[in-house]
Amino acid sequence: MKTGILLLLVFLAVAVHALPAGSEIIPLPKPQRRGGMPLMEALDKRQSIRSYSARALDMQDISNILWAAYGINRGDGRRTAPSARNWQPFDIYLIMADGWYLYEAGEHALIKLGDEDLREHAGGQDFVRTAPLNLIYVSDYERISAVSPGNRELHSATDVGFISQNVYLYCASEGLGTVVRGAIDREKLHEVLRLRPSQRVLLGQTVGYPEGR
Ligand SMILES: Cc1cc2nc3c(=O)[nH]c(=O)nc-3n(C[C@H](O)[C@H](O)[C@H](O)COP(=O)(O)O)c2cc1C
Description:
By secondary structure, the chain is of the alpha+beta class. It has helices at residues 3-17, 39-45, 59-70, 149-174, 186-192, and strands at 24-27, 90-96, 99-104, 109-114, 133-140, 177-181, 199-208.
């Protein structure tokens, strides 16, 4: 992509998401939207894994994981996961050893928000600090403001389950390990990810190669 377009994207992303100046856009490789394991076999293998090898994920893995999770799969901007009235309230933050990022589904890109290793804040379980990737699912209540506060919680809790299950199935298909996690310090994550008041941290999900692979 041309430098001018990238700079414009950074400018727009900073303006729309109120991101820190200096945020960097990193285009992801195109997701591999064909192939993988037959669905019934992936369902057969779906499980939670809590022991990970130090092996890094490459950019193609990350691209595929994010597209499976919540990528755009149709020309009208709809996604791989359903959402109540197509509000699409979620943002996915990525916490990795070399920094923390936001998934920009429209461009299928990462926005690098900082260089710090925030894995110590991504959850209390030991494997969270060493696994290569922790996804943090964040709902923006401003995008679901047309319903009552109770329904905002209901829709967010429901929508995040679809996203998380997409990641489970992709990981099962590719021999990756994953576990969705509710045992997280949501207030701390809200602070360190510098979220807006309208945003709520719902769940974390660790992804990596299982121990021994
Ligand atoms: C909403 C939710 C929160 C969860 N929180 C955690 C967690 O904090 N830590 C963890 O190790 N597993 C967590 N899990 C994973 C469950 O423990 C796991 O899905 C369950 O034991 C069944 O195992 P399976 O996924 O291998 O079928 C969570 C699952 C869900 C759906």
